[in-house]
Amino acid sequence: MKKSLQIGGAFVGLIVGAGFASGQEIMQFFTSFGFIGIIGALLATFAFSFLGMTLAQLGSQLQTTSHKGVIYYIGGRYLGLALDFLITFFLFGVAVVMFAGSGATFHQMFGIPTMVGSIIMVLLTIGTLLLNVKNIINIIAALTPYLMAIIFIILIYSLFTMDVSLSEADQLAKTQASASSNWLVSALLYVSYNLAAGAAMLIVMGGTVKDRKVAGLGGIFGGIMLGMLIILINVTMLVKIDVVAGVDMPTLALANQIHPFVGILMAIALLGMMYNTAVGMFYAFTVRFVAPDHQMFKPALVLVGTAGFLASFIGFTDLVGKVYASMGYLGFALIFVIVLAWLRKK
């Protein structure tokens, strides 16, 4: 049970990243549809749990240290090759987005130059990756309860201090920019591109466990916790839509409304989530090319980290637009082959 919870917590830590914890992604994919967005969040919870379970079990079954073995196993020679290439590319891309995002957050909250903020995150990421994979899972999982506690505090405060009626909140929410014109497509697209980012590391985490049931349970726990966070953040922003409408970082705005100190705690949570995602993505990217017990693994980490830092100069907003938009389409192909693999197994 403990190992399953660790895998589940690490799965959440990988997925939430910058946009999730800030509330911006939840706003566009769920809140902007009003109350029906809650149904979308429930659907996403089920999808994350089912797909997370399947991927973790495949990793455990094949005892893999890289996503490559599982992707070729479920996709075959040709589709597997295409998925492997795209997943590997996006692993690097998402990590670079985290470096750029941390630089922007350090600058916005603490007045630290963007470059310095990015360098801090790069050094923390490389330093963590010099540990073994089990320690990495523990570190990533440890930050998840902290984020959930902060979000829960903001939700309780928001429910007791809401200034608009539920019908007004529903109407105002629908005026916000949406990721899609349909709530169902939006929920599926959200699961799709997040899975494209988190699948590789989830497979690697499943490979650290020999018991398929333990690994699968970890995927289910992770999906449930992700769903709880989506629903909590969604409801919070819905009842406080008059405050967060048009704001770049909604949860940070709500935290600052409670007290500046809570705002600082939320900023730390955001940076922690970016750190989690950067660590998970860069580890999965590096082990795709160099085995973790190989003598060239550590030098490869430094090289990849340096390349990621240089790529982060493209800018946070531009990177999010280019990397995340493309990932949704990859995710649908990945979900298709995962479901096929599950059906074949049954």
Automatic annotation (TrEMBL):
Superkingdom: Bacteria
Keywords noted in UniProt: Membrane, Transmembrane, Transmembrane helix
InterPro entries on file: YkvI-like (IPR038728)
Transmembrane segments: 33-58, 78-100, 112-132, 139-160, 180-205, 217-241, 261-285, 297-317, 323-343
Full protein name: Transporter
